[in-house]
Amino acid sequence: MQHSIGFIGVGNMGTAILKGLTSRDDIELHGFDLHTDSLVRASKEYGFVAHTSARDLVLSCDYIIVAVKPQHAEPVLKEIVDALDTSKCLISICAGLALSQFEQWTENRCAVVRVMPNTPALVNQGVSAICLDNANLSKTMKEFVPALFQGIGQVHVLPEKQFDAFTGVIGSGPAYVFYFMEAMIESGVALGLTRVQATEMVEGLFLGSSKLAAESDLPITQLREMVTSPAGTTVQALMHFDRQAVRGDIIDGVFEAYHRSIELGKK
Fold it and tell me: 92 φ, ψ to 5°?
């Protein structure tokens, strides 16, 4: 059975998901965006049906992905609410907006799914949390939506109460990684490498280490121990990190992001 998937918003994250779906022959892709130039450009690149309004898109699609900025979500929902019914499944990737908010805005007319992808989805290496708590979801929808997002990386079905934890660890996580990468690059420059050399080397370091962690059966701790020879250079650096409580600071930082996510969800 072929499904029609519509995107309200074809910005960075919307097009990342679109890109991950273009190889599938069991779906028909549709798109709408207020920025006509972006819509036309994306339509040519990814081969989806472009619509002149969000409401027209909803009438043509089974699954509707709302990929707009959070502050624009309510006006969009007000425009399309009368076109929603039990045959439709609305998928929100709007950061910070609770499932209950979408249930209210849609007047409980259709099934609603909340999804939180992170930015590596832009290169099909994302990690997405999916909430399937809405009572209107059919068995087919619960199976189909996670399969859709597998096109842009890992998928984890979580209850909504765990989304703040996901935000603190994974949603904000790419920034932590880039922050550490910046520090490593600056260290290389300070030690005499050119910035180009240091950047290329550090990118290779993170790519290779991530691949090793993903493909090895060994736990992360053992992989770290493989590099940590007695009385060597690595253990010297790690002991310094421990004396400075770097591990604890990282954990504290993740908890700060977690608590901020809770605060934002209450606004």
Answer: -100, 130
**Measured torsion, CA atoms of residues 215, 219, 223, 229, in degrees rounded to the nearest 10:** -160
Digitized pLDDT (tens) for each residue of the chain, 267 residues in all: 689 999 999 988 898 898 888 888 889 999 999 999 989 999 999 989 999 999 999 999 999 999 999 899 999 999 999 999 999 999 999 988 999 999 999 999 999 999 999 999 989 999 999 999 999 999 999 999 999 999 899 999 999 999 999 999 999 999 999 999 999 999 999 999 999 999 999 999 999 999 999 999 999 999 999 999 999 999 999 999 999 999 999 999 999 999 999 888 777
Q: φ and ψ at 257, to 5 degrees?
A: -65, -40
HEC assignment per residue over 22-79: CCCCCEEEEEECCCHHHHHHHHHHHCCEECCCHHHHHHHCCEEEECCCHHHHHHHHHH
- Of 162, 159, 130, 127, nearest in space to 143 by CA: 130
The residue among 174, 219, 181 whose CA lies nearest residue 200 is 181
The three-class DSSP label of residue 144 is helix
Beta bridge partners of 115: 130
Pairwise CA distance, residues 134 & 88, whole Å: 13
Q: Beta 126-131 vs 63-66: how paired, if at all?
A: unpaired
pTM of the model: 0.89
| CA-angle at 235, arms to 231 and 241, nearest 5° | 145
Domains of the chain: 3-166 (3.40.50.720), 171-266 (1.10.3730.10)
